[in-house]
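Notes from hallway chat w/ T.B., transcribed later so I don't forget. T.B. wanted the structure written out for a chain they're using in a teaching module, and asked if we could keep both sequence and C-alpha coordinates in one place. Agreed to drop them here.
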Amino acid sequence: MSASDVHPHLSEDYCMYRGRHLWGAYFCSSLSVFVGGLVILLICKVGSRALRGLRVLPKQNRIHPQDVDPEAVLNLRNSLRTWAFSIISAQSRPGKILTLFTFCVHLCSVLTYMIMTTYPVEYCMQDYTALFLVDVVFNLFYVVNFGLRFVAAQDELRAWVELKSLIDIFTIIPSFIGLFTKRAWLGLKFLRALHLLELPRVLQLNIPHSNTSLKLTQLITVLVGSLLTAAGALHLVENSGDPWSSPPNIYIQTYYETVYCLVATMSTVGYGDVVARTVTGKFFIIIFIVTGLGLFASYVPEVFAIIRNRKRFKGSYTNTSGET
Protein backbone atom coordinates (compact mmCIF):
# COMPACT_ATOMS: atom_id res chain seq x y z
CA MET A 1 0.00 0.00 0.00
CA SER A 2 1.45 3.36 -1.01
CA ALA A 3 1.49 6.52 1.03
CA SER A 4 -1.02 8.16 -1.32
CA ASP A 5 -3.54 5.42 -0.44
CA VAL A 6 -3.15 5.98 3.31
CA HIS A 7 -2.76 9.78 3.11
CA PRO A 8 -4.64 11.17 0.05
CA HIS A 9 -2.95 14.59 0.43
CA LEU A 10 0.47 13.01 -0.18
CA SER A 11 1.94 11.83 -3.46
CA GLU A 12 4.85 9.55 -4.25
CA ASP A 13 4.41 9.67 -8.04
CA TYR A 14 6.64 12.70 -8.59
CA CYS A 15 8.67 12.56 -5.39
CA MET A 16 11.56 10.63 -6.91
CA TYR A 17 14.53 12.03 -8.81
CA ARG A 18 16.03 9.49 -11.21
CA GLY A 19 14.50 6.71 -9.17
CA ARG A 20 15.92 7.90 -5.85
CA HIS A 21 14.84 10.12 -2.99
CA LEU A 22 16.62 13.38 -2.23
CA TRP A 23 17.26 13.02 1.50
CA GLY A 24 20.97 13.61 0.89
CA ALA A 25 20.23 17.11 -0.40
CA TYR A 26 18.40 17.99 2.82
CA PHE A 27 21.22 16.70 4.98
CA CYS A 28 23.89 18.42 2.92
CA SER A 29 22.02 21.72 3.11
CA SER A 30 22.13 21.62 6.91
CA LEU A 31 25.74 20.43 6.87
CA SER A 32 26.78 23.24 4.52
CA VAL A 33 25.13 25.85 6.77
CA PHE A 34 26.88 24.42 9.81
CA VAL A 35 30.31 24.21 8.15
CA GLY A 36 29.90 27.62 6.49
CA GLY A 37 28.92 29.26 9.77
CA LEU A 38 31.80 27.54 11.53
CA VAL A 39 34.29 28.81 8.95
CA ILE A 40 32.91 32.36 9.15
CA LEU A 41 33.10 32.36 12.96
CA LEU A 42 36.67 31.02 12.87
CA ILE A 43 37.69 33.73 10.39
CA CYS A 44 36.05 36.41 12.53
CA LYS A 45 37.72 35.08 15.67
CA VAL A 46 41.16 34.94 14.07
CA GLY A 47 40.63 38.35 12.49
CA SER A 48 39.52 39.83 15.82
CA ARG A 49 42.67 38.57 17.51
CA ALA A 50 44.78 39.94 14.68
CA LEU A 51 43.17 43.37 14.99
CA ARG A 52 43.68 43.35 18.74
CA GLY A 53 47.31 42.61 18.05
CA LEU A 54 47.56 45.83 16.05
CA ARG A 55 46.98 47.82 19.21
CA VAL A 56 50.48 47.05 20.44
CA LEU A 57 51.98 48.83 17.39
CA PRO A 58 52.99 52.50 17.48
CA LYS A 59 50.12 54.92 17.15
CA GLN A 60 51.10 56.13 13.64
CA ASN A 61 50.96 52.53 12.33
CA ARG A 62 47.46 51.78 13.54
CA ILE A 63 44.46 51.81 11.26
CA HIS A 64 41.64 54.11 12.37
CA PRO A 65 38.68 54.21 9.95
CA GLN A 66 37.09 57.63 10.03
CA ASP A 67 33.54 56.41 9.42
CA VAL A 68 33.42 53.73 12.12
CA ASP A 69 33.52 54.29 15.87
CA PRO A 70 34.87 51.09 17.47
CA GLU A 71 33.60 52.10 20.90
CA ALA A 72 30.06 52.61 19.59
CA VAL A 73 30.09 49.22 17.86
CA LEU A 74 31.36 47.57 21.04
CA ASN A 75 28.75 49.29 23.20
CA LEU A 76 25.96 48.24 20.82
CA ARG A 77 27.17 44.67 20.86
CA ASN A 78 27.34 44.59 24.65
CA SER A 79 23.88 46.13 24.92
CA LEU A 80 22.40 43.49 22.63
CA ARG A 81 24.17 40.74 24.54
CA THR A 82 22.89 42.07 27.87
CA TRP A 83 19.35 42.38 26.52
CA ALA A 84 19.33 38.83 25.09
CA PHE A 85 20.85 37.40 28.25
CA SER A 86 18.20 39.08 30.40
CA ILE A 87 15.50 37.35 28.34
CA ILE A 88 16.89 33.82 28.34
CA SER A 89 18.57 33.83 31.75
CA ALA A 90 16.83 31.47 34.13
CA GLN A 91 17.71 33.80 37.01
CA SER A 92 15.08 36.35 35.92
CA ARG A 93 11.32 35.96 35.91
CA PRO A 94 11.02 36.35 32.08
CA GLY A 95 13.80 33.80 31.72
CA LYS A 96 12.00 31.27 33.92
CA ILE A 97 8.79 31.73 31.97
CA LEU A 98 10.64 31.35 28.66
CA THR A 99 12.44 28.24 29.93
CA LEU A 100 9.15 26.62 30.94
CA PHE A 101 7.47 27.63 27.67
CA THR A 102 10.43 26.35 25.64
CA PHE A 103 10.25 22.96 27.33
CA CYS A 104 6.52 22.78 26.56
CA VAL A 105 7.39 23.48 22.92
CA HIS A 106 9.95 20.67 23.08
CA LEU A 107 7.29 18.24 24.31
CA CYS A 108 4.82 19.30 21.61
CA SER A 109 7.55 19.07 18.97
CA VAL A 110 8.44 15.51 20.01
CA LEU A 111 4.76 14.51 19.93
CA THR A 112 4.45 16.11 16.48
CA TYR A 113 7.45 14.11 15.30
CA MET A 114 5.90 10.86 16.57
CA ILE A 115 2.74 11.58 14.59
CA MET A 116 4.79 12.49 11.50
CA THR A 117 6.47 9.07 11.61
CA THR A 118 3.18 7.65 10.32
CA TYR A 119 4.03 9.38 7.02
CA PRO A 120 6.84 8.20 4.71
CA VAL A 121 10.32 9.41 5.60
CA GLU A 122 10.32 11.54 2.45
CA TYR A 123 7.14 12.57 0.68
CA CYS A 124 5.69 15.26 -1.54
CA MET A 125 2.59 17.26 -0.66
CA GLN A 126 -0.12 18.33 -3.03
CA ASP A 127 -1.21 20.77 -0.31
CA TYR A 128 0.40 21.70 2.99
CA THR A 129 -0.79 19.45 5.77
CA ALA A 130 -1.86 20.91 9.12
CA LEU A 131 0.80 18.84 10.88
CA PHE A 132 3.51 20.16 8.59
CA LEU A 133 2.46 23.77 9.24
CA VAL A 134 2.44 23.15 13.00
CA ASP A 135 6.01 21.87 12.70
CA VAL A 136 6.95 25.01 10.74
CA VAL A 137 5.57 27.17 13.58
CA PHE A 138 7.70 25.25 16.06
CA ASN A 139 10.72 25.81 13.83
CA LEU A 140 10.05 29.55 13.73
CA PHE A 141 10.13 29.56 17.52
CA TYR A 142 13.39 27.60 17.48
CA VAL A 143 14.90 30.16 15.10
CA VAL A 144 14.07 33.00 17.51
CA ASN A 145 15.36 30.99 20.47
CA PHE A 146 18.57 30.15 18.63
CA GLY A 147 19.09 33.82 17.77
CA LEU A 148 18.68 34.89 21.40
CA ARG A 149 21.13 32.24 22.61
CA PHE A 150 23.65 33.18 19.94
CA VAL A 151 23.45 36.93 20.67
CA ALA A 152 23.71 36.34 24.43
CA ALA A 153 26.71 34.01 24.13
CA GLN A 154 30.09 35.18 25.35
CA ASP A 155 31.78 32.85 22.86
CA GLU A 156 29.86 32.66 19.56
CA LEU A 157 32.01 29.79 18.30
CA ARG A 158 31.17 27.64 21.31
CA ALA A 159 27.49 28.57 21.02
CA TRP A 160 27.52 27.49 17.36
CA VAL A 161 28.81 23.97 18.09
CA GLU A 162 26.84 23.22 21.26
CA LEU A 163 24.27 20.44 21.20
CA LYS A 164 21.22 22.73 21.12
CA SER A 165 22.58 24.58 18.10
CA LEU A 166 23.37 21.37 16.23
CA ILE A 167 19.84 20.11 16.82
CA ASP A 168 18.41 23.39 15.54
CA ILE A 169 20.60 23.54 12.44
CA PHE A 170 19.89 19.97 11.36
CA THR A 171 16.13 20.13 11.97
CA ILE A 172 15.09 23.68 11.07
CA ILE A 173 16.69 24.03 7.64
CA PRO A 174 15.11 20.90 6.05
CA SER A 175 11.72 22.04 7.34
CA PHE A 176 12.03 25.45 5.64
CA ILE A 177 13.23 23.80 2.43
CA GLY A 178 10.12 21.64 2.50
CA LEU A 179 8.00 24.77 2.99
CA PHE A 180 9.13 26.15 -0.38
CA THR A 181 9.38 22.87 -2.32
CA LYS A 182 6.38 20.99 -0.84
CA ARG A 183 8.78 18.06 -0.47
CA ALA A 184 9.14 17.03 3.18
CA TRP A 185 11.83 14.92 4.83
CA LEU A 186 11.35 13.53 8.32
CA GLY A 187 15.12 13.58 8.74
CA LEU A 188 16.79 14.24 12.05
CA LYS A 189 13.76 15.56 13.90
CA PHE A 190 14.20 12.69 16.36
CA LEU A 191 17.12 14.64 17.83
CA ARG A 192 14.57 16.90 19.53
CA ALA A 193 13.93 14.09 22.00
CA LEU A 194 17.29 15.06 23.53
CA HIS A 195 15.61 18.26 24.73
CA LEU A 196 13.81 16.11 27.29
CA LEU A 197 17.10 16.02 29.20
CA GLU A 198 16.33 19.60 30.24
CA LEU A 199 13.42 18.49 32.45
CA PRO A 200 15.47 18.41 35.72
CA ARG A 201 16.64 21.97 35.04
CA VAL A 202 13.07 23.15 34.42
CA LEU A 203 11.82 21.49 37.60
CA GLN A 204 14.72 22.92 39.56
CA LEU A 205 13.75 26.44 38.53
CA ASN A 206 9.99 26.27 38.93
CA ILE A 207 9.03 23.50 41.38
CA PRO A 208 10.31 22.79 44.91
CA HIS A 209 12.19 19.52 44.95
CA SER A 210 14.53 17.36 46.93
CA ASN A 211 17.93 16.15 45.84
CA THR A 212 16.59 12.59 45.61
CA SER A 213 13.71 13.64 43.36
CA LEU A 214 16.07 15.61 41.14
CA LYS A 215 18.43 12.66 40.86
CA LEU A 216 15.56 10.31 39.99
CA THR A 217 14.27 12.72 37.35
CA GLN A 218 17.72 13.00 35.79
CA LEU A 219 18.11 9.24 35.53
CA ILE A 220 14.67 8.71 34.01
CA THR A 221 15.00 11.56 31.49
CA VAL A 222 18.40 10.27 30.32
CA LEU A 223 16.94 6.80 29.78
CA VAL A 224 13.78 8.02 28.03
CA GLY A 225 15.50 10.72 25.96
CA SER A 226 18.26 8.38 24.81
CA LEU A 227 15.78 5.63 23.95
CA LEU A 228 13.46 7.89 21.93
CA THR A 229 16.42 9.42 20.07
CA ALA A 230 17.92 6.04 19.23
CA ALA A 231 14.51 4.73 18.13
CA GLY A 232 14.16 7.71 15.80
CA ALA A 233 17.57 7.01 14.27
CA LEU A 234 16.70 3.35 13.70
CA HIS A 235 13.32 4.33 12.22
CA LEU A 236 15.07 6.69 9.80
CA VAL A 237 17.67 4.23 8.51
CA GLU A 238 15.23 1.32 8.20
CA ASN A 239 12.60 3.33 6.33
CA SER A 240 15.22 5.03 4.13
CA GLY A 241 17.16 1.92 3.15
CA ASP A 242 20.89 1.62 2.55
CA PRO A 243 22.20 4.64 0.60
CA TRP A 244 24.17 2.46 -1.81
CA SER A 245 21.32 0.06 -2.59
CA SER A 246 19.58 0.42 -5.95
CA PRO A 247 16.64 0.15 -5.86
CA PRO A 248 16.47 1.25 -2.20
CA ASN A 249 15.95 -1.68 0.17
CA ILE A 250 13.34 0.08 2.30
CA TYR A 251 11.76 -1.87 5.17
CA ILE A 252 8.73 -0.15 6.64
CA GLN A 253 8.83 -0.04 10.43
CA THR A 254 6.69 2.14 12.65
CA TYR A 255 8.21 4.29 15.35
CA TYR A 256 6.55 2.12 17.99
CA GLU A 257 8.18 -0.97 16.51
CA THR A 258 11.64 0.61 16.67
CA VAL A 259 11.08 1.64 20.30
CA TYR A 260 9.93 -1.91 21.07
CA CYS A 261 12.97 -3.37 19.28
CA LEU A 262 15.44 -1.21 21.22
CA VAL A 263 13.77 -1.87 24.58
CA ALA A 264 13.97 -5.61 23.92
CA THR A 265 17.60 -5.22 22.86
CA MET A 266 18.57 -2.98 25.79
CA SER A 267 16.95 -5.29 28.33
CA THR A 268 18.78 -8.30 26.76
CA VAL A 269 15.42 -10.04 26.16
CA GLY A 270 15.71 -9.96 22.37
CA TYR A 271 12.51 -11.67 21.17
CA GLY A 272 13.58 -11.28 17.56
CA ASP A 273 10.10 -10.54 16.20
CA VAL A 274 11.16 -7.00 15.23
CA VAL A 275 14.72 -6.70 13.93
CA ALA A 276 16.85 -4.39 11.78
CA ARG A 277 16.94 -5.55 8.16
CA THR A 278 19.13 -2.99 6.40
CA VAL A 279 22.91 -3.07 6.67
CA THR A 280 22.88 0.46 8.09
CA GLY A 281 20.26 -0.52 10.66
CA LYS A 282 22.24 -3.59 11.75
CA PHE A 283 25.37 -1.47 12.14
CA PHE A 284 23.39 0.98 14.26
CA ILE A 285 22.15 -1.89 16.46
CA ILE A 286 25.76 -2.95 17.07
CA ILE A 287 26.62 0.55 18.28
CA PHE A 288 23.44 0.70 20.36
CA ILE A 289 24.18 -2.63 22.07
CA VAL A 290 27.60 -1.39 23.15
CA THR A 291 26.28 1.91 24.53
CA GLY A 292 22.67 1.04 25.42
CA LEU A 293 23.46 -1.99 27.54
CA GLY A 294 25.90 0.01 29.61
CA LEU A 295 23.32 2.76 30.05
CA PHE A 296 20.61 0.28 31.01
CA ALA A 297 22.84 -1.67 33.40
CA SER A 298 24.00 1.43 35.27
CA TYR A 299 20.87 3.60 35.32
CA VAL A 300 17.97 1.17 35.84
CA PRO A 301 19.30 -0.41 39.08
CA GLU A 302 19.97 3.08 40.43
CA VAL A 303 16.41 4.15 39.62
CA PHE A 304 14.94 1.16 41.46
CA ALA A 305 17.31 1.72 44.39
CA ILE A 306 16.12 5.31 44.78
CA ILE A 307 12.45 4.26 44.60
CA ARG A 308 12.98 1.45 47.11
CA ASN A 309 14.80 3.72 49.57
CA ARG A 310 12.10 6.38 49.30
CA LYS A 311 9.46 3.84 50.26
CA ARG A 312 11.61 2.53 53.10
CA PHE A 313 12.09 5.91 54.74
CA LYS A 314 8.65 7.28 53.92
CA GLY A 315 6.25 7.69 56.85
CA SER A 316 5.91 9.51 60.15
CA TYR A 317 7.42 9.15 63.59
CA THR A 318 5.30 8.77 66.72
CA ASN A 319 6.60 10.03 70.02
CA THR A 320 5.87 7.48 72.78
CA SER A 321 6.54 9.10 76.11
CA GLY A 322 7.93 7.03 78.89
CA GLU A 323 9.55 4.47 76.61
CA THR A 324 13.21 4.12 75.85
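Follow-up for T.B.: The chain has a mean pLDDT of 80. Might be a good example for the class.
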